[in-house]
Amino acid sequence: MEEEAGVRRWIVDITRWRPSPDQFDAAAALLPSHERPAIARFVKEDDRKRALVSRLLQYSLVHHVLRIPLHQINICRTPEGKPYLKDCSAFPNFNFNTSHQGDYVGIASEPICLVGLDIVSISKPQGETTTEFISNFSSYLTDHEWNCIVRAGTSCEVLTEFYRYWCLKEAFVKAMGAGVGFGLHRLEFHHEHWTDISIHIDGEVTKKWGFWLFKLDEMHLASIAKGHPEDAVSSYKKALSTVSVTEEQLHSTLESPQEAFTLWTVEQLTESME
């Protein structure tokens, strides 16, 4: 049940959608014309599908939650690429974030706190061992995280452990609206069997953020980061209605039970937009 107004967790399995060229073009035609070049620039069909479904999710969710007619929805992007709504007065800080990798495209929204979503596909490395693969990312991990990863067990467990940390770091950076240059090594995650997850930023623990991990299937994970609006980067902060959140509001949001993801089909999305 979607109990809290403005909170949504939607996901689409793109492998279930095999559109003809005409069906693909019909779905793309539901979007504003300025959104279509960003889809067409992809060469591979799966990449085009992910780009299209990501935008369909954004417009459908805004239409669904805020009851704004589709032709009046104005989604802008910060210089770092973070999407935001112009002129949204229904909630103090309605914001949303999308992610896609592997079979899934997803979106998460929140009415007050910043929200970040990241989806990862736990694919086995090609042409190198798991240790060699994760070594490529060692500069983005702290010593504590690296030790937790390499001691996780089998190569499959090590890989999954790495992706859990990676997923959380990406969700946090995306929630803030930061760009690709943000130093992921500055973030260190602690947890109790991947519940009660906390973050240390530059060595300091913060109580202004909450994190959750979801297992979508055997090969895909998703993470949600929720945090205080004052931690948004400057360009994104300007897009928010307010960065003032009371301790009570923040605590209530971070302590509330987490919504499960609702699985949508592309057909359902397009029907909701027609």
Provide a descriptive summary of the structure in words.
Residues 16-111 form the 4'-phosphopantetheinyl transferase N-terminal domain. This is holo-[acyl-carrier-protein] synthase. The protein has 274 residues and is an alpha+beta fold. The protein has helices spanning 21-28, 36-40, 45-66, 130-135, 143-150, 155-176, 234-237, 247-255, 266-273; strands at 8-13, 75-77, 83-85, 95-101, 104-110, 114-121, 187-192, 195-201, 204-217, 220-227, 262-264. It has a 5-stranded antiparallel sheet, sandwiched between helices. A 4-stranded mixed sheet has the order 4-5-1-11. It has a two-stranded antiparallel sheet with strand order 2-3. The radius of gyration is 19 Å and the shape is globular.
Task: Give short descriptive properties of this protein.
4-stranded mixed beta sheet, 34% helix, 274 residues, alpha+beta, 5-stranded antiparallel beta sheet, 9 helices, single chain
List the topology elements.
Elements: E1 8-13, H1 21-28, H2 36-40, H3 45-66, E2 75-77, E3 83-85, E4 95-101, E5 104-110, E6 114-121, H4 130-135, H5 143-150, H6 155-176, E7 187-192, E8 195-201, E9 204-217, E10 220-227, H7 234-237, H8 247-255, E11 262-264, H9 266-273
Parallel strand pairs: 1-11
Antiparallel strand pairs: 1-5, 2-3, 4-5, 6-10, 7-8, 8-9, 9-10
Helix pairs in contact: 3-9, 5-6
